[in-house]
Request: fold
Amino acid sequence: MNQSGAQGNSRQGANANHSSRNCNRWSLDRALINAMNDLIDLGGWKTDNGQFKNGAYAKLEILMKEKLPECDKKAKPHIESRVKLLRKQYDAIPEMLSPSASGFGWNDEGKFVTCPQSVWDEWIKSHKNAAGLRNKPFPFFDDLGKIFGKDRDVGNEATNVYDVLEEMDEEERGEQEQEVPESIESINLTPIGNPTGHSSSPTTTTSRTKRART
Reply:
């Protein structure tokens, strides 16, 4: 085999291994999140401040084994450390979208935070848990919201990202309601002739991306 062929096979093998690792991580995270949901449904495994009680990670190990028989992850250090990482990453998102922050937006379809590079560079200096979250899909965001969402405090106001997104939706609806009557009046009540003979009509565009707070 020539050198170029060997290099090509090597790259293909590396890509396959990378894809396999990503798939395995996704499967493990999915099994872990399903196990946490089951644990919460059982009741009695969370403290008043939303943390898991002693023995919860051992129970998660059993539940994960039921969902993924080939899973060899142990309560400590694997499951406990992964739960804590997922929680830190989840908590970082509503903090960026809270009223106390500015310049951030949320892509609800892709499940990721958006912001200008300058805003991100300044934010990450003092918010290390947000590392890697800009423009990067966080696919289990909604699932983790059901697990961690109501446990998050931003400042002195208990909130979660769903409250923030609803508030942003209400702001956008309010702006649209103020703009629509004016555009309707200008089109329907005071029509302007078109010298070219072509008619024009207003167009409306929608986006699943929440605008950045300013």
In short: The chain has one domain: 18-169. The chain has six helices and five strands. The two ends are 59 Å apart (CA to CA). Residues 37 and 43 are 10 Å apart (CA to CA).
